[in-house]
Amino acid sequence: MTNKNHNWASQRDEKNLRMANATSIINNKFVRTENAKELLETLIQPNDRVVLEGDNQKQASFLSETLASVDCARIHDLHMIMSSVSRPEHLDIFENGIATKLDFSFAGPQSNRISKMISSGILKIGDIHTYLELYARLFVDLTPNVVLVAADKADKQGNLYTGYNTEETPVIIESAAFKNGIVIVQVSEIVDKLPRVDIPSDWVDIIIQSDKPYQLEPLFTRDPQNITELQILMGMMAIRGIYEKHHVQSVNHGIGFNTAAIELLLPTYGNQLGLKGKIVPYWEVNPTPTLIPAIENGWIKSIHSFGGEVGMEQYISARPDVFFVGKDGTMRSNRAYGQMAGQYALDMFVGSTLQIDKYGNSSTVTNGRLSGFGGAPNMGSNPTGRRHSSTAWQSLKPTDNPLAKGQKLVVQIVETYNSAKKPVFVEHLDAEKVQKEANLENVPIMIYSEDTTHIVTEEGIAYLYKTNSMTERQEAIEAIAGVTPLGLRSNAKKLNQLRNKGIVALPEDLKVNRLAAKRSLLAAKNMEDLVKWSKGLYNPPAKFRSWS
Amino acid sequence: MTNKNHNWASQRDEKNLRMANATSIINNKFVRTENAKELLETLIQPNDRVVLEGDNQKQASFLSETLASVDCARIHDLHMIMSSVSRPEHLDIFENGIATKLDFSFAGPQSNRISKMISSGILKIGDIHTYLELYARLFVDLTPNVVLVAADKADKQGNLYTGYNTEETPVIIESAAFKNGIVIVQVSEIVDKLPRVDIPSDWVDIIIQSDKPYQLEPLFTRDPQNITELQILMGMMAIRGIYEKHHVQSVNHGIGFNTAAIELLLPTYGNQLGLKGKIVPYWEVNPTPTLIPAIENGWIKSIHSFGGEVGMEQYISARPDVFFVGKDGTMRSNRAYGQMAGQYALDMFVGSTLQIDKYGNSSTVTNGRLSGFGGAPNMGSNPTGRRHSSTAWQSLKPTDNPLAKGQKLVVQIVETYNSAKKPVFVEHLDAEKVQKEANLENVPIMIYSEDTTHIVTEEGIAYLYKTNSMTERQEAIEAIAGVTPLGLRSNAKKLNQLRNKGIVALPEDLKVNRLAAKRSLLAAKNMEDLVKWSKGLYNPPAKFRSWS
């Protein structure tokens, strides 16, 4: 047995000691803005595990700037845990000698710099995760010492209102508040009465008003102006050859113009096909503005969201039958529950990618660019623990095995050449090289071939789930890979064999009229149209406003 | 576009109307115990989707009794959504004509009756889920009209304290509170000041004091008295041949004497092997009393839990370095986050089952007994969306594919004959028959062969992940299936081939001394020993107390 005097509350004692050292600047949980640096230097200790909130949209920017400025003689060797490495100072923290190790999910805007810092040894990667598995580890082997998060408002008692962008704040706070971690929150405003309480005061240790509101990116906004006719053609094929064919009821769309095109085709092309009420009433997706016409046209019963979207606030508040909205009239998002739903409760994931290899593995990690994973691998995977059935899921069930079950539809929509005129279909993913350069345990594949059930290009659809060998799978991919080197391996005979087996479908097989793939088919052709559809409730950020 | 006068807040209006109809019995959220039936008859409407809280441990028993007593002329055709069908009145609700459709996860105690009610057509199954996917659907296509949940205490403002058994209350409430659902909470007590706020008042519509505290089952308590020497032998093999071999750091144990044996062997056999500090510091598991010796002996860094465990309250409060405990000194559990961690953040799941077929598929659904799934398929599956690496996970990576990744260890520990002297290893699962009887879409398999990486019996360990064909997999299973009909297909020659390939290991291959597999090797031999290890802090429920 253990020593009788073993202290089983050592973490709590440590927390209390740190808090006691900061009493001179803490007034009943509240700390003045100008004392932020002193606060962090007092409450954080070398080698701490520190969670810094920042998914791809919402950033605890005041706290990250403050952390990047602390004295590295006092605070060093931190192990940072961050959903997203998005802001310059996220990496300054490492360059400034404050942190050395990083566990993260996504590094879009900083993906070049992070690659260089890994090679130069300034930054050591713990691992790269999907959002959901990173949250999961906060309760197992990455329990934090300190968490730095952001909320809209606090009341005088210390309760928090996170507003539309609740996102990952609750899951991060819960992991610390109940395991002796210190919860430090930046708020944009301190008020007498909150619209509603999102996080109870009991879970919060420190509240500090930020110098300016936290950073928030309109990441899911796509201007319909930029949707091309090829994307419209692919969208039409997807609607006929996938959404309609499999009776898809619930879906997540990735970020991109390909899926934006589909959203804008539902109230036009979808209506022509008589599909309203028959497909995709249920969505797990951020409140992307290109969904407004489909919502207004009565296509959508429910949208649960990971986060909010800048400019959509008033529109969301006015559509509580569709969005998740509190009694106070403002949205509640939740990134952890959203990813959970995205994995387990949906018929289909539809995304895009930068490269697809000959087997059907895909990745957005390309040379010199370690972009991480975000949520796509989670939603773009077939959860083998799923036990409930749906028509779409069952439609992919193999017929040769009485013990078989269905499968999630995981769809990649890509043009065969990307916007930089490089082939999307490649012999080997750049990710294979990146694995070696960054010394990663595995090739950073975003979505594996085994999980990918359909690929849509401007050529046609490959129904990969129907192939019964890796050779046939490769042939199906080649058949829709256009004039990329992979595509050139296909020929008319092979193509027709695959079409006859139903493994590949061309637009004519789907009765999709190529000539109808015009921009005039989009329910909204530009941002102004979206505002009109919203009856003036959608308020696009300035950078998306090209009209007066 | 839609009608200008379309009401986009119809769900909210409907909720407000129902609440207005009940104003005479609602006093600032609070309703008197004796008005419970009238309340439900006013707030619930025919065809509603109603979530009734009740996982395998914690039951909103006052509200379920009340619901079973309502007038079926007023309330009928409800669609019930319940994690667990555990109490008689859960099925009375259907027999009494109040509900017709059921989506659920687990039906342990009611598994016989539920089978009969399906055959007789009284009850129509929506589907059977794992816990996590049922929670996921609450945000997508099963958003509830009304939720009936349980908490320990409410304060006068309507904030809730859920105590040790937070479990699934937050995820259920969130799904309703932000989608115009009505949140009705039974509390055991109304107080001036809560120990802490678990759920903010803003998320709650109605609080009603129950006539007695909610039902709570000590489901995870196993009396060491009942652990057999065969189970000890299997535990020793598992520790050497799996935990040690794969350097397993994080684990979930299912309910059962097999895993209880392992827990009680860590401080004895594990110490003899010098494994303390080297294996399983991180756990996602309910606070099972048989973990007390391993905790006291310094094996365990962290335990996050789905729920509490009756009798463990004081012990947990005194061990905040290990358990998740709030500032108030009481535990916070969370079933949704626990299942999320169980799926994505663990190296290994270890469970037991009632039947395993020749391929390695297993199920606890047996003839006449539709037990459902609970959490096992979720934790006992290989999440293909996982991207982070660990030593154990990587140790299962196939060596013949440069694009391969690791795999979760999914271990079944079973004696070849179960306690009813029936063979566990069978040609066909009873579940195949149950599929037909209950008209289920798929065979209710608990854990599929493809996810099962190891099987341990009293004969030895089959390393299924090493097999490279279904034939070899079947041979490996036969080799450890003892004298069951399946086991008799094996012979000495095949066994030795498999041992030479490292696909099967016998105790001697693992250097496990069969003669040492004695009850004296258990760190605690009975409940009294567990209480002693806990320094008197563990307080077993009466039914587990055989001493004074």
UniProtKB/TrEMBL annotation, chains A, B:
Pfam families for the chain: Mal_decarbox_Al
Gene3D superfamilies assigned to the protein according to its UniProt record, in alphabetical order: Glutaconate Coenzyme A-transferase (3.40.1080.10)
Cross-referenced InterPro entries: MadA, NagB/RpiA_transferase-like
Gene Ontology MF terms in the entry: transferase activity
Name assigned to this protein: Malonate decarboxylase subunit alpha
Taxonomic source organism: Ligilactobacillus ubinensis
